[in-house]
Amino acid sequence: MDHPLIDLINARIARAEGEGAFDNLPGAGKPLPACDDPEGAVMTRILKDNGAVPEFVSLSRELARLREELRETADRSERRRMMQEMSLLEAKIAIARKAR
């Protein structure tokens, strides 16, 4: 089933094309870049444009932060807690990478 506004959309595209709005665009005449996931390409771009990152990336950043904090912590019980948290993060990262 077509979009209810398909005729309006096509008319606006045709008008813009006639007015030269698509002339001299960057990359004109070049092939489109390869896309690993054409079905999710729009969502991927929206997420990327808004600074979203895959879960394993954010988890890796948290792990790096914890490692730095561990270097500066002398309290043994706090170090033990942090190492347990780091171990859990490493497991979560492995799971998130496999889910990709």
Fill in the keyword field for this structure.
single chain, elongated, mainly alpha, 100 residues, 63% helix
Write a structural description.
It is a single chain. The two termini are 32 Å apart. Helix 3 (55-71) packs antiparallel against helix 4 (76-99). This protein has 100 residues and is mainly alpha-helical. Helices cover 63% and strands 0% of the residues. The mean pLDDT is 90. It has helices at 6-18, 41-49, 55-71, 76-99. The protein is built from 4 helices and no strands. The protein is elongated and about 70 Å long.
Percent range of helical residues:
55-70%
Beta-strand segment tally: 0
User: Any low-confidence stretches, pLDDT <50, length ≥5?
Assistant: none
The backbone outline, from C-alpha atoms, is elongated
The average pLDDT score comes to: 90
User: What is the H/E order?
Assistant: HHHH
Biggest beta sheet summary: none
Radius of gyration: 24 Å
Chain oligomer state: single chain
Strand content: under 5%
| Structural class by secondary-structure content | mainly alpha
Euclidean distance between termini CA atoms: 32 Å
- What is the number of helical segments per DSSP (H or I, 4+ residues)? 4
Question: What does the secondary structure layout of this molecule look like, with pairings?
Answer:
Layout: H1 6-18, H2 41-49, H3 55-71, H4 76-99
